[in-house]
Amino acid sequence: MRITDLLSKESIKLNLSSKTKPDVIDEMVDLVNASGNLNDKQEYKEAILAREELSTTAVGEGIAIPHAKTKAVKKACLAAGITKEGIDYEAFDGSLSNLFFMIAAPDGANNTHLEVLSRLSTILMDADFKNSLIDSKSVDEFLSLIDQKETEKFPEEQKEEAKAETTEAKSNDGYPEVLAVTACPTGIAHTFMAAESLSNKGEEKGITVKVETNGSGGIKNALTKEEIEHAKCIIVAADKKVEMARFDGKKVIITKVADGIHKADELLERAVKGDAPIYHADGAEVAEEESNEKEGLGRKFYKDLMNGVSHMLPFVVGGGILIAIAFLLDDYSINPANFGMNTPLAAFFKTVGGQAFNFMLPILAGYIAMSIADRPGLAVGFVGGVLAKDGYAFNNLMDFANSNPVSSGFIGALIAGFVGGYIVVLLKKLFSKLPASLEGIKPVLLYPLFGILLMALFMMAINPAVGAINSGLNNFLASMSGSSKILLGAILAGMMAIDMGGPFNKAAYVFGTAQLTVANAGPEQFGIMAAVMIGGMVPPLAIALATTIFKDRFTESERKSGIVNYVMGASFITEGAIPFAAGDPARVIPSCVIGSAVAGALSMAFGCGSRAPHGGLFVLPVITNPLMYLVALVVGSVVGAVILGVLRKNKAN
Fold it and tell me: Domains, the chain, ranges and CATH?
């Protein structure tokens, strides 16, 4: 990183007016701010003063290099100032300081301030060079002197830059330098936020970037074969399975979708430098995230699970809302035992919604297995999910209809998905020893035949035990009442706000939707789903209220974004709160968690229930005790907003 890249003409002053150390700090901070690279001038000054309290940054020989690394800095930069008279900056050698360089480094940067300190110290050891800077007649001369000295002192950089320019000229053929793929389990917010972050950072850094989004509406802005061939590197920021075979032989960075949002700068730096392993489509592990270590078991488990959940959600949401509409349209007094099917219109919605909902567990199991073993795993996992849903076992095969089978439910489908995937992985290894002439029949005959057979044997063996566990859990939930029930609502709702779309959020949501699949689901199960949904609605609503009530605590840009969160909160899209949580996690996340927990506890206390797994306020008519549910939502959102407003600092300026 060259000194001249960090300096701008606006941040250089050849005749400082200051006479004391406090004054020169103020004047130099103003120069840094003039570069346009500070988020908060006062916060940066406080960081400079905090560093000076540790020890003076005057290095002697008439030179002082004050510096700070803080989140108040948007982009690394440098300011320079000169005073011929000299200022007492408390140098160890007692000398007055004539030449000042103030370094501003963003928090999280890779020791930018230390690199700049080292480089400045190296070139300023030349007394003649230092004196020539002090005697500069113009800013242009000042910059020219530094550029010449850096070229002289670090000649290897010139060779690297020339090589890079030659490479860029050769590759500048109209194709993007870096490609990216973003995907999250729900395909709603994180997917597009990561894409936006990578695109914006690329534009800021002068890197041509194309991002493919694997969202809920399908693949958008798909990468072409030619673009992949010409790309320097591909970034895959995804928490679910994406098509990887097309990247065979290319440098690929595989990481979480959250890193695409929060670490776009770092990812693009790595991509441009080619700091990534070669991806091989034969299934070999490639480096992941920052450490270049192999994918961990926990990360692999989460990724496979989320692949199943993401494909399951459309069936859950669509089918669940249709079933809820059926109850809304039906007449309970006709036949309470047949509620939801008493009128033709209600029966239509209940039947269609029920059929969609019945696919939930097979789809979950099938796509978990597919994530593990690719396409051959789909059929095996799907069959395992059906067997789990219906509760087939060896002891009920002969008279299934009259044997009262016990479904192993969501737990059984999870097991079926993972076991089914690894059954196919095992079969692939076993059948790899077969002659090459049989390669074509493996996916259409051998894998499905032996995979489904082994899956059936396994599921029928474990279904009775897993079904008993599933029944025990449901009975336990049904028995909860009073304070324990309220506590459960608070915990689940609070989990929805911890990471707003991450593992905690998804765990709570999957638990809530699983309750809707329970045979003869009742108020207890519907109450859990209502608490989960209200917990996901509070964070964006609390932030929206806080930006409205406590305007001086937020920047103008944040206040504009806050308005959008009213809609996102009402729609049960928790991810609308992520930009605020990412920018100020210590204040935003606790406020939202407390607000969500309060709302979830009140929802349970008021006896609210939801047969719909999604929809937010738009499904309020099908929610049990809708008025009190609205009260719980308002109270939780206000609590979160007030706590956030109290914790935030004034940012009006």
Answer: 3-161 (3.40.930.10), 178-295 (3.40.50.2300), 299-472 (no CATH), 482-647 (no CATH)
